[in-house]
Every structure is written in structure tokens, then in C-alpha cells.
């Protein structure tokens, strides 16, 4: 008896990909949070909305927390926990700062002002460099106020030579320099008044704040 082997003509099905090769839920959540931060930052930079860094970080942290609650029965999601913890700490640091740092977006700005009437009550940059040049002003009133803050970076105020000033400055960590005299360290809280300042004479009252970085007042 002759036995003839038969070859199966059934197509071989491709093996299913191992589980876990696709995007995992923590990756989706983390990517979504980063996308949200990017979109809010872009909208703030274009002037479509006015939000501070603390608000953006707070929203992102809240999303991470809600996601961890919903995914609690699917595993520990260590990466998402670490991401959320870092976001939470950064948010807390910006929220408890003793001044309005982390406002106004991320940029390097130079503002030249030629009239006292053009001075805005408040200038803010979250991160970068903010330079406010007042050296061309000739119509200062007594105790003309100016407030400026920066979250991380450098804040420079250039005043007209010989102008009397009152400076109240706070720097969380970094350096403060007023007319060539500097101090550095952590928790800087300094006040300065020009010698011989008379009531009713033209002067500037500067309220300057930085979370971390450098603050300078110069007449050069």
C-alpha cells in the first residue's frame, strides 16, 4: 500500500503581536497632558487666552490625578505616578511663592518707555529675560510706581541717571543688584531708598520679584 502525504493548503495566519507593544494607557495620558500644556502655552503666547504657568500646571496635575484614580484597578502605573508627583511639586512651588512669579508666558522681552504715562502698573514674564528701559523718561512724577516679576531668569530695570528710587525686591534664590551693589543667596528680601530722597520730588517706586534668577536695577 502506498501512502501519499497531503500538504495542507490552508494559509498560515500571522502570529498575533505580543501584548503590550502598542501604546499603553499611561503613555496616552502623559502624552495628552504634554499636548495640553503645549496648546495652552501656544494660546497664551498668541494672546488668545491669559493664563499663568501655575494654572496650566494645576490643570495638568489634576488630569494626572483623575487618570490614576480611573486606572487604579489596572496596575500601579509607576511612570504616571512619578510624572504626576513631579508636576505636583512644581505646581506647589509656584503656588506658594511669595509673589506673582510665573505669569506672562516664556519670552525675552525688552520694553523701552519714554513717558511716565506709558508705564504699566505691572510687568510679568514666567521664564526668560525681562528688561525695562526707563532712561529716556523726563516727566517722572513723585513716587511713580512700577511692579515687575519674573519666574525664572533675569529682570533688569534701567533708570534715568540720578533718579531717586525706592526699591522693594524679593528673590527666592539667585542674585539682587541695585546700582552696583549686589547680594546673592536664598530668600532675599531687601529694601533700598536713595539717600536724600525728598517727599514730592520725582522718583520711582520699584516693586521687583523673582522666584529664581537675577534682579538688577541700573542707571547705565
Structural summary, described in words:
It is a single chain. With 220 residues, this protein is of the alpha/beta class. Helices cover 26% and strands 35% of the residues. The protein has 3 helices and 6 strands. It has helices at residues 25-45, 53-70, 78-96, and strands at 106-112, 122-133, 144-158, 164-178, 181-193, 203-218. The protein has a 6-stranded mixed β-sheet with strand order 1-2-3-6-4-5, with no helix packed on it. A hairpin with a 2-residue loop joins β4 and β5. α1 (25-45) packs antiparallel against α2 and α2 (53-70) runs antiparallel to α3 (78-96). Mean pLDDT is 77; it is low at 16-23.
The shape is elongated
Oligomer description: single chain
| Low-pLDDT windows of residues | 16-23
What's the end-to-end separation, in Å? 110 Å
Query: What summary fits the major beta sheet?
Result: 6 strands, mixed
User: Helical stretch count?
Assistant: 3
- Overall number of strands: 6
Q: Helix- and strand-based class?
A: alpha/beta
From the alpha-carbon coordinates, what is the Rg to the nearest angstrom?
A: 28 Å
Strand residues, percent? 35-45%
